[in-house]
Specification:
The structure is a single chain. With 147 residues, this protein is of the alpha+beta class. It contains three helices and five strands; from the N terminus they run H-E-E-E-E-E-H-H. The chain has a five-stranded mixed β-barrel. A hairpin with a 2-residue loop joins strand 2 and strand 3. The radius of gyration is 30 Å and the shape is elongated.
Length: 147
């Protein structure tokens, strides 16, 4: 049996659910954290075998208006192979770049969708429990106390 709520209580319940749903949607559609790295193409100049401890290919890339040599966080590429890399914001000193295909670009859409749906299902379950659990408790009648 459902608990009857006054219109004010219904408005409060719906307000809380609406705000929680909006917060979940904002978290879902909020853009991923902006990174200060940018993508560019690099050419492998010295390939490295993948068996050693120092298994980093050397690549040549253009940073700004300079041509720089950097370590590629990867191995096994062919000489003169063009690889798309992610260059960090700080390019001073010894430069190490990462292959663009292995760099994370933010939280995947599937994960964000799963979080949104989990939040919404939790809110729906909480509302359902509130409605069926209610505070309406039958009180003992005088005839039951006399027995």
């Amino acid at each position: 049996m459902a608990v009857r709520l006054s219109p004010v209580r219904w408005a409060l319940v719906l307000l809380v659910l609406g705000l929680a749903g909006i917060a979940a949607a904002v978290a879902f559609w909020w853009p991923a954290g902006s990174t200060t790295a940018h993508r560019t193409s690099a050419t492998v100049v010295t390939p490295a075998p993948c068996g050693g401890r120092d298994a980093y290919d050397r690549v040549e890339l253009k940073v700004g208006d300079q041509t720089r040599t950097a370590r590629l966080d990867g191995c096994g590429h062919q000489e003169s192979e063009v690889v798309e890399v992610v260059v960090p914001a700080d390019t001073s000193g010894d430069l190490t770049v990462q292959a663009a295909t292995s760099a994370p670009s933010g939280m995947p859409l599937e994960t964000r969708l799963a979080v949104l749906l989990t939040c919404l299902s939790g809110m729906a379950g909480g509302l359902y429990a509130h409605l069926i659990g209610g505070r309406h408790r039958p009180q003992a009648t005088a005839s039951a106390d006399a027995v």
